[in-house]
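Summary for the funding panel

The consortium committed to producing paired sequence-structure records for every protein in the target list. Below we show the first two records in order, beginning with the earlier of the two.
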Amino acid sequence: MRMFWTRWTPLNQNVWNQMQELQGEVNRLFDQWGDRGRNFLGIAGFPALNLWEDGDALQLEAELPGLELKDLEIFVTGHNQLTIKGERKPVTLEKAVHHRQERGFGNFVRTVTLPVPIDESKIDARFEFGVLKLRMPKHEAAKPRKIEIKA
């Protein structure tokens, strides 16, 4: 496990940047524990998502049942921080008594640190049948380059 110690210097650094650094460190810690650690602590991520690398792009699928497109926002920060933000609204039932309500409702934010920088201007985002699908091409700096060897 890696630990980073930094000195807090409010005069030299913006507080917002420090909060983002803290969020990044906490995300890395939970990434090391995986889903078992999140579930143990009772903070499993919503929405559930899969992220994989496919050639020169990253692919992401996020399960968002019951959401409408207007209730969903996606942001990319710094070429490698993806944020999915939205609101799942509760179903209003008239003259009904709830016997069980396990699905959560309300606002959510999920931020994921991507393994490589991406070109956010070329992201293809689709929302089909309650599943958000993103194709995120890698940034040119993240693609392998062949180096010519001179004799």
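The next record, for a separate protein in the list, is shown here:
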Amino acid sequence: MTSTRCPDAFGGQAICSTRINGNAWKGDSGGPELSGDRQVGVASTANGRTNQQYGSVPFNRAWIRDNAGV
């Protein structure tokens, strides 16, 4: 798996992933990207074949805490 920082669909910081076991596609939005036992991303966009972008949980942590209380 290759993972780099890139913008998500709304210009926020995301994690771009390639070469993983399976790819995010239609209906997968909001699904988790895990690193070990921690969720590091939330599925945002994908091309259905090789690349997907996950909104970065660490980058958005303050917003998550303010809105979800976790």
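Regarding this second record: The first strand starts at residue 2 and ends at 7. The chain has one helix and five strands.
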